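Much of our argument rests on the idea that a fold can be written as discrete symbols. The amino acid sequence and the backbone structure tokens for this protein are reproduced below:

___
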Amino acid sequence: MKLTTHTDYALRLLIFLGVREDDEPATVPAAARHYGISNHHLAKVSQTLVQLGYLVSVRGRGGGLKLARPSDKIAIGPLVREIENLELLECFGANSTCPIDPACRLKGVLFEAQQAFLSVLDRYVLADLIENRQTLRLLLGEPG
């Protein structure tokens, strides 16, 4: 299973905000610059994370983004479920047009594999991903 760029960038942004030492908001351009990724795309990702309640957007001078809750309360599995389209195949949706859908075993096998993948993600929170905070900060060029 391959995660979308949107989910990849969401996880990167959460890591970026999670490793910061200060409690000051960070900007999307700063995060994009540290990762060498598209500012425009990351701005869309940040909007998604704000709408889903993972981030808080602080307006005005000195504004930016902050984690909406502590890193040990941001679960990775639910985040991926909220952002990703988990319909691996057309038949995973309600309007399957596949003629063998009623007898197909592939759908069940892929569903089982997907659940195993998500089960692993369910065991982790953002705090687990940033335990090596100092190393991540150095690699990101001291983000904050």
Q: What stands out?
A: The radius of gyration is 18 Å. The first helix runs from residue 5 to 18. Residues 2 and 90 are 16 Å apart (CA to CA).
